[in-house]
């Protein structure tokens, strides 16, 4: 398992290319993982904690137990042959020793990468002091090295989404990269100008989250973004289609064509 996971982690890292971004359509269980992995062009997967939490009937923001989070990582990773990055929220531990132990368990479950957040609670504020958040990223890297798996760390910067200042967000991004993050996931880059500015001021690869109101995907690629994800948006997309179909069927309407989808 470790050798296979290590190879997947190396592959996942290689897919983060500025200008040719890794597009990860977020999943939340084994069946969504298989369906997305089977789509043409998909090279890696990422879970979304919001979607995983809602599928378990709990709130996002570590409403999941660490055991539930790790078991979901295990199920998703085992369902596909491509690399899986796990949204591991804040690591499910307030202390460094606990964080490192949880990362070791996550890697054993098959994760090739992870998201780690720098906000203390939900919503996206307040954040850990920058020194604490940086040490937490460094702890993830130490745990990965001890496991022999070059885990891809997508370090999330919640400053802007939580109403904080630009300079703090940039300082955090660069500090996390210096501590061992492979890419920084900056929330709040909702305009082309903000994306351009972040790319100019961050000394490494940048990941963003997108939706219909965001910068178009082709433009994000042109600007030099390395990774794009959609978070809970893919759960919303799925549920919207399901609700529309339920409405149509209940009204004795036509059978939706997708009712015959072979999975």
The quaternary state of the protein chains shown equals: single chain
Rg: 18 Å
Which spans have pLDDT < 50 for at least 5 consecutive residues? none
CATH architectural type: Alpha-Beta Barrel
User: What series of H and E elements makes up the topology?
Assistant: HEHEHHEHEHEHEHEHEH
CATH superfamily: Phosphoenolpyruvate-binding domains
What does the largest sheet look like?
A: 8 strands, parallel
The proportion of residues forming helix, as a percent range, comes to 40-55%
Q: What's the N-to-C terminus distance?
A: 27 Å
Shape: globular
Kindly provide the name of the CATH class: Alpha Beta
Q: What is the percentage of strand-forming residues?
A: 5-15%
The helix tally amounts to 10
Helix-strand makeup class: alpha/beta
Number of domains: 1
Strand order of the largest sheet: 1-8-7-6-5-4-3-2
CATH-derived topology: TIM Barrel
Average pLDDT for all residues = 96
- Strands, total number: 8
Structural write-up:
- The structure is a single chain.
- The chain has a single domain (2-231), classed as TIM Barrel, CATH 3.20.20.60.
- It has an eight-stranded parallel beta sheet with strand order 1-8-7-6-5-4-3-2.
- Strand 3, helix 5 (96-108) and strand 4 form a beta-alpha-beta unit.
- The protein has helices spanning 2-14, 30-37, 49-55, 66-79, 96-108, 130-147, 166-178, 192-201, 217-223, 233-250; strands at residues 22-24, 45-46, 84-87, 113-116, 152-157, 183-186, 205-209, 227-229.
- The chain is an alpha/beta fold and 263 residues long.
- GO terms for molecular function: catalytic activity.
- Pfam families: PEP_mutase.
- It comes from Conyzicola nivalis.
- This is Carboxyvinyl-carboxyphosphonate phosphorylmutase.
């Amino acid at each position: 398992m470790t050798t296979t996971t290590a190879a997947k982690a190396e592959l996942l890292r290689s897919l983060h290319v500025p200008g040719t971004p890794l597009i990860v359509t977020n999943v939340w269980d084994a069946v969504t993982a298989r369906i997305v992995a089977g789509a043409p062009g998909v090279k890696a997967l990422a879970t979304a904690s919001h979607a995983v939490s809602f599928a378990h009937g709990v709130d996002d923001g570590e409403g999941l137990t660490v055991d539930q989070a790790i078991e979901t990582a295990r199920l998703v990773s085992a369902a596909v042959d491509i690399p899986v990055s796990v949204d591991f929220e804040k690591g499910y531990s307030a202390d460094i020793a606990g964080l490192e132990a949880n990362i070791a368990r996550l890697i054993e479950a098959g994760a090739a990468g992870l998201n780690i957040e720098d906000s203390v609670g939900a919503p996206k504020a307040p954040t850990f002091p920058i020194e604490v958040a940086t040490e937490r990223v460094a702890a993830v890297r130490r745990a990965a090295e001890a496991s022999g798996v070059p885990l891809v760390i997508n370090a999330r910067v919640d400053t802007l989404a939580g109403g904080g200042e630009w300079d703090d967000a940039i300082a955090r991004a660069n500090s996390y990269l210096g501590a061992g993050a492979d890419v920084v996931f900056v929330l709040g880059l909702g305009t082309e100008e903000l994306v351009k500015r972040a790319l100019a001021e961050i000394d490494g690869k940048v990941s963003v989250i997108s939706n219909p109101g965001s910068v178009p995907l082709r433009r994000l690629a042109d600007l030099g973004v390395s990774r794009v994800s959609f978070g809970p948006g893919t759960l919303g997309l799925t549920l919207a289609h399901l609700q529309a179909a339920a409405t149509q069927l209940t009204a004795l309407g036509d059978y939706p064509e997708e009712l015959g989808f072979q999975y």
